[in-house]
Structure formats: C-alpha cells, structure tokens
Amino acid sequence: MDRYTDAVMNTFGTPGRVLVRGQGAHLWDADGKEYTDLLAGIAVNCLGHAHPAIVEAVSTQISTLGHVSNFFTTPAQVRLAEELISLTFPGRPAHDSRVFLANSGTEANEAAFKIARRHGGAGRPRVLALQDAFHGRTMGALALTHKAAYREPFEPLPGGVEFIPAGDTEALRSALGPDVAALIVEPVQGEAGVRELPAGYLEAARELTRTAGALLIIDEVQTGMGRSGAWMAHHLLAPGVVPDVVTLAKGLGGGIPIGAVVATGEAASLLGPGQHGTTFGGNPVACAAALAVIDTIRGQDLLGRVERLGSAWARELLAVDGVDEVRGRGLLIGVGLATGLPPAGEIAATLAQYGFIVNAPRPDTIRLAPPFILSDDDASAFTTTLSEVLAQALSEKAGS
Ligand SMILES: *Cc1c(COP(=O)(O)O)cnc(C)c1O
C-alpha cells in the first residue's frame, strides 16, 4: 500500500485491498482473505474471474495474432461488429448499422459525441444530457457528465451541452428544437445510484427527438451486454424504441478493455475516413474476449439467469430491515438505505470486512453488479450478512 501511494497518482483515493487472485465470483487479497465479488470490477466481469471461455479465447488469439493496426482488419473484429449490430438492433436490416470499436466507455461516448457534432453541423450546436448523468472522464464525455465536482476543475469543456431533469418529458420537449444535434441518456443511471428512467420516457424521447431531427444516443456502457437481463436495458424498458446510437463497454469484454459505438441509419455513416481513429480499438484479443462473452451468455442462457436471480434477490433485499428501496434491473441493483443509517460508504467497508465486495455510488445507496454466474447461495449469504450489518447499525443508532 505504501508503494502504491508512492508510485500511483492519487486519483482514486486509497485502495481498499490488494487483490491477487480471482476465480468465478470470488476474490482473494494479499493476506489470503476471500471475498464474494458483488461488484465485478464495476459491472465488468460479467462471467466472473478466470472464466475458461475468456481464458481460452484470449490465449488462442494472442498466440495467433495479438495486434494489427487499423490499416488492416481481422476475422475477430468483423465477427464482433456483426454480432454487436444484431444484438443491439434486432429486427433492423443489418446493412443499415455500423460499429466503431474503442477501448473504454468514455471513448465510446467521445465517438458518439463526434457523431452528434457531425449531425447537422453548425446548424445544430446544442447537445442535451440529463441531470445526474455519468458518461465518462475524458473531455468530451466529461462535458456530458453532470456532476460539478468532476467538471469544474477542467473547464472549459467542449461547449453546447445542456442538462435537463432526468425523466421529465416536458423539460425535454421545451429544450428540443431545430438546433439540437442529440440527446444522450442512460436507461438506468448507474453512478447516480442505479436510477431507472420512468416508464414512457424513452418512448417520448424517441418521438420528440425524431420530430426535432435530433439523434437519440443511449449510453449502455454499464447497463448493456446482459446486465439488465436483456442484451440492452432499453430493450427491456422501451421495447419498441430504436435509438440512433448505442454505446457499450464495461461488460463487453468480460474484463478485457473494449468499448463500442453501434449506430444505425444516418448516424451509422456520419464519421467518414480520417474523422475518427484509434490505435488499439478493435484489437483482435479484445474482440476475441468479447466474442467469448457473447457466446457464453447465449450458450448458457445467462440472460435468463440474470433476470431470475436479479428479481428473486431484489425481493429478498427489500425485506431486509434498514433497506428502504431496491432499484434497478437484473443484476444492476441499487440498495437504498433507510435514513439515519451510517453513510453507505461505511456500510460497504463493513461488508468488505465480512467478505463481500460492493460499492456506494451515493451516500444512501449500495450498488450490486455481480458476475452473472453468481450462485443463489452467494446471493443469499450476502442478504443475511447485510441484514446483520444493518441490524447492528440500527441498534447502535437506537442506543446512542
Ligand atoms: C463507467 C461508465 C462510463 C465510462 O466508462 P469508462 O470505461 O470508465 O471510461 C460511461 N458511461 C456510463 C453509463 C458508465 O457507467
């Protein structure tokens, strides 16, 4: 830990543990202590740790062809692009859609932002984003991110972005106009504490953006690739809605860094030769990992598993004393703590002592985003420990 502090920039605060090994939904720290991983590297390790399908795909690919520049393509890259088009836009003619492969969520959103800038050009300088939105930390994605503490130290950011209240159709209607290039939304706001957009909002957003000639960009970086129990959370929340652009990352590579922009219709051809690029994006090792993730989710019906475990677990969690609310979909769960309890960060630290890794995106919320392969027993063991930890905190409060 001292060596970390001396060598690594202090952007993340002090790390909770030094982790040395993972297997399935379990992790071990440098002292040999075991944890159940209910965070999965923030919704990333969807197949858990050291999954044989990812190990095999990555090992085979890197021992065959590890990297080429984007002057060339590889079979893995082409197959992944085709898969992402059919997973993101089922029922659309495949030739209407195109993919740009990047390395992270923020990069996927940078590319989406550039697509928005190309849409309508100087005649559409405005981009709408939602209050409490999180879209990433690079300058463009940061401009789309709402939290002042993240933004203000880095201003001036790319201009033209306006924030409107999340889920408010009337606010969207009055903000939209012929000078708006795009609206970007997360179907479930993850960093804001797992807050789902209200029913009907995405449908209204699609209708209103279409009327105004603006693009609808859905950021599925955290919610996509099965985490909600469907390939994309917007498929579940708003089945008829076809966005122009969808961004993906986190779970896509199952732990190998990769991001993607999937666009359809006019938006699919707005970035032309020379207008965007990346050295590593579309790297065959990352693509092979993503293909292994997709094949495994499909082959083992993990979407069904996420849906069933997620809804049963949410019911269990809601019955815990001290839990006020359980939000989210599938295995992206926000556990809302009752007022008067210690801050969620303290509860998360106590839970780590008891061997469960979770995080606290807000002072009143514990976030669970475990691997899809989490067992029923591990989920129930957490519920039991959480109820003990909250009972203890409630009795301390009553005694003080
Ligand atoms: C995590 C996240 C991002 C940023 O992804 P990085 O890979 O950390 O750059 C963007 N959007 C959403 C919704 C996220 O949850």
UniProtKB/TrEMBL annotation:
Requisite cofactors: pyridoxal 5'-phosphate
Keyword hit for Amino-acid biosynthesis: yes
Cofactor remark: Binds 1 pyridoxal phosphate per subunit.
InterPro entries: AcOrn/SuccOrn_fam, Aminotrans_3, Aminotrans_3_PPA_site, Class-III_PLP-dep_AT, PyrdxlP-dep_Trfase, PyrdxlP-dep_Trfase_major, PyrdxlP-dep_Trfase_small
Transmembrane regions: none
HAMAP family to which the protein is assigned, alphabetical: ArgD_aminotrans_3 (MF_01107)
Family of this protein: Belongs to the class-III pyridoxal-phosphate-dependent aminotransferase family. ArgD subfamily.
Protein name listed in UniProt: Acetylornithine aminotransferase
Organism, scientific name: Actinomyces naeslundii
Gene for this chain: argD
